[in-house]
Amino acid sequence: MPWRHRYSRWDGAQAGFELDADELFSQITDDLLYHGDLNSALRRLLQSGFETPDGQRIEGVRELLEQLRQRKRDTLERHDLGGSYDDIAQRLWDVVRTERAELERLAQLAASSGDQRRQEITGQAMAERGLQLDLLPNDLAGRVQGLQQYDFTSVPARDAFDRLVEELREQLLQAQFGQMAEAMRQASQDQAQLQRMKDMFNDLNALVEARQRGTDTQEQFDEFLRRHGDFFPGNPATLDELLSQMAEQMAAMQQVLSSMTPEQRDQLHQLSQALLDDLGLSFQVSRLSSNLQQLFPSMPWQQSRRFEGGQPLSLGQASSVMRELGDLDHMEQMLRGATNPGALAEVDLDRARELLGDDAASSLYRLARLAGQLEEAGLLERREGRLELTPRGLRKIGQNALSQLFSKLAKDKLGRHETVRQGTGVERAHDTKPYEFGDPFNLDIQRTVRNAVRRRGAGTPVHLTPDDFEIERTEHLTRSSTVLMLDLSLSMPMRDNFLAAKKVAMALHSLISTQYPRDYLGLVGFSEVARELKPAQLPEVSWDFVYGTNMQHAFVLARRMLGRQAGTKQIIMITDGEPTAHLLADGEPFFQYPTHPATRDATLAEVNRCTREAITINTFMLDASRALRQFVEKMTELNQGRAFFTTPESLGDYVLVDFIENKRTSAGRGRSPLPAGPSPARRPRR
């Protein structure tokens, strides 16, 4: 039975398309090559974010932090925390006004009845009730307590007051206890359940106090959940989890009070105490709050916030907004402290999605996965707490640099570097040609038989003639030895030349190691002094914070390295300045700018030694200063190498094309023209 494929509309719930590890790695290549520090490159990528090949923006930590700050600003500028106080006060005023209107209506009815006795009794009763209303305290708690003891005449006023008290109690429970609020509200409506709730708070306080004394409370907690688990719909697995949730909720409520004016804070505090007293919970809740503040002293219990908007918040809404602001603060602290991608794994992605949206949550997920994906792909590995490149990662950087450079060149100039013509040799070209007299008889049996069948038709035996013969082509092979001399002096980064030069070094290493494995490539870095570099060091090589361009010492090292090699020998030098340093007889470097005659003479002496040893020097200059031009022209006159005046943007084009064309020329092929650049290649006159 054939496979059947079913498709459904994308709804955001399916697994997303993962960013390829190679694409991720390409994001840090330039930064790594420029600064030479893998872990710093990852941190900078983490901070700045990046774009995927399909154009999707992965927001960095800096952008996410700004979104968090903006969300907090919007919340504070939109809401009015005093609205809860004003709303309660207004509704209490409406209750009293409705009751007074009813008292006046009943007094008017009695007055119009003509019954003197009724008028006296009604008037006295209405006057007593009116006096009770007049004597109600101004504070919210006092008014609520006074009206709870008041015998309402108006049914609508009584109903409105009962609804207000019930709403306030629900808001208070929601603000203080979050998920527990509904179970507590239901328990408050039944006397037996209300006692269970009081017992639950007493047992919980006993647990917390035992925990503070250092007692193992696991068995007590298990028993506590068995008896009171229905009050905790979140199903906490441990006592710590339960207490942490309750502490966050109570701290948010405390922040609501701290953010109000002193008068509002005092009024709402007294009101909450009055409502809890009504349930008989005031003492236990105060005890729990005190215990939790001791157990979680780092929570922002007294933090206040300045709300400047006009949208009023109820007590429950205010607590919810405070928790949201607290989550924003917590997330901001985590992002600020994230020094590596792994630190973001602790961020609650579901909460991030609620606070900042799907795009931000997706960015956080991908940022957190950065290092992990690169490790899983074998590009990075962790050693002694630090991430380092693997051999595969090193090769990948070179391939990335090579791909970038080749992508700029016209396909008809380089392509896959196929040779112009084939002939005898030892390397198969995976191509064939009709046999000609004098060709080596490397017969391709499959194509030869196919030619015979095509000519004579199917059937056996197959009769062959010389016209059917087809042979395998082979490529000419020429081994060359190259030393790349890379200027690491301080002027290279100052003139924005360093990254381009280092990319060329990586690309040339990748090209030779993958397509010309029999060739040799040595690396020499030079500034005040020169040093041999290994390919594995290249990604983390950086410029030297010293002055001096010691070509003389670099030529000494390059000449010695090539002296141990065979084949065609050349030096490729990439620099942006004339020689300003050389080694003295005692081995100490001498530096002077402008160039001292002794430095110039010592450098040209090494050029002559290279020339006598048949080493060609090709120079790629990234700065067309007069002094550099004059020196390089003298050097190429002595050596008969070539000089190219180029820019960082076209440096790779020149170096790679020149290297490949040299390979072709050495094999007896004609030279193709170099790609167009800022200035033509120069060969000095004899």
Write a concise synopsis of the structure shown.
By secondary structure, this protein is of the alpha/beta class.
How would you describe this structure to a colleague?
The chain has about 675 residues and is α/β, with parallel strands linked by helices. It folds into 4 domains: about 25-80 and about 330-390, no CATH class; about 85-305, no CATH class; about 425-475, no CATH class; about 480-680, 3-Layer(aba) Sandwich (Rossmann fold), CATH 3.40.50.410. It is about 55% helix and about 10% strand. The chain contains 25 helices and 17 strands. The strands form 6 sheets. A 7-stranded mixed sheet has the order 11-10-9-12-15-16-17, with helices on both faces. The chain has a two-stranded antiparallel sheet with strand order 1-2. Strand 13 (about 580-585) and strand 14 (about 590) form a beta hairpin. The longest helix has about 30 residues, at about 85-115.
Q: Give me the secondary-structure category.
A: alpha/beta
Radius of gyration: 42 Å
Low-confidence stretches: 1-17, 410-427, 668-686
Number of helices: 25
What key phrases describe this protein's structure?
single chain; 686 residues; alpha/beta; 4 domains; seven-stranded mixed β-sheet; two-stranded antiparallel sheet; 17 strands; 11% strand; disordered C terminus
What is the secondary structure topology, with strand pairs?
Blueprint: H1 21-35, H2 38-48, E1 49-51, E2 57-59, H3 61-78, E3 79-80, H4 83-113, H5 116-134, H6 140-148, H7 155-177, H8 181-188, H9 191-212, H10 218-228, H11 239-258, H12 262-279, H13 282-295, E4 311-312, H14 315-336, H15 349-356, H16 358-368, H17 370-376, E5 380-383, E6 386-389, H18 391-407, E7 427-434, H19 445-456, E8 470-475, E9 480-487, H20 491-494, H21 498-515, E10 520-526, E11 530-533, H22 551-563, E12 568-575, E13 581-583, E14 589-591, H23 597-612, E15 615-621, H24 626-639, E16 643-645, H25 651-666, E17 681-682
Parallel strand pairs: 3-4, 9-10, 9-12, 12-15, 15-16
Antiparallel strand pairs: 1-2, 5-6, 7-8, 10-11, 13-14, 16-17
Helix pairs in contact: 1-2, 1-18, 3-14, 4-5, 4-7, 6-12, 7-8, 7-14, 8-9, 9-10, 9-13, 11-14, 15-16, 18-21, 21-25, 22-23, 23-24
